[in-house]
Amino acid sequence: MKNRQIHLAFPSTSQNLSISQDETVLQVLIRHEIPIKHACTNGVCGVCLTPLLSGEVDYGQQQPRGLNQKELAQGYFLPCIARCQSDITIAEPKVKVR
Ligand code: FES
């Protein structure tokens, strides 16, 4: 299977991480010690909310219940249950403010 790339467009760094099709974005960020808050890891709490700047992710059988319509419209996604459908570019993960 072909690996995808996660491009980190952060003010502090710009680097690419390789992700396989059976990994979530959160697993890769943690493995590379990229700071990201997480709690439930099943798409419910919304703590891992991160801006998706380009590319497509897929939640498979899981529902992104931690993402409301406003956040979705603003381009956020939930890395804990997201797998890459294409190469993606993300901005720095945000701490949830609701
Ligand atoms: S860690 Fe809870 S929604 Fe991602």
UniProtKB/TrEMBL annotation:
<dbReference type="InterPro" id="IPR012675">
    <property type="entry name" value="Beta-grasp_dom_sf"/>
</dbReference>
<dbReference type="InterPro" id="IPR001041">
    <property type="entry name" value="2Fe-2S_ferredoxin-type"/>
</dbReference>
<keyword id="KW-0411">Iron-sulfur</keyword>
<keyword id="KW-0408">Iron</keyword>
<dbReference type="InterPro" id="IPR036010">
    <property type="entry name" value="2Fe-2S_ferredoxin-like_sf"/>
</dbReference>
<keyword id="KW-0249">Electron transport</keyword>
<keyword id="KW-0813">Transport</keyword>
<dbReference type="GO" id="GO:0051537">
    <property type="term" value="F:2 iron, 2 sulfur cluster binding"/>
</dbReference>
<protein>
    <submittedName>
        <fullName>Ferredoxin</fullName>
    </submittedName>
</protein>
<comment type="similarity">
    <text>Belongs to the 2Fe2S plant-type ferredoxin family.</text>
</comment>
<keyword id="KW-0001">2Fe-2S</keyword>
<keyword id="KW-0479">Metal-binding</keyword>
<dbReference type="GO" id="GO:0046872">
    <property type="term" value="F:metal ion binding"/>
</dbReference>
<dbReference type="Pfam" id="PF00111">
    <property type="entry name" value="Fer2"/>
</dbReference>
<dbReference type="InterPro" id="IPR006058">
    <property type="entry name" value="2Fe2S_fd_BS"/>
</dbReference>
<feature type="domain" description="2Fe-2S ferredoxin-type">
    <location>
        <begin position="4"/>
        <end position="96"/>
    </location>
</feature>
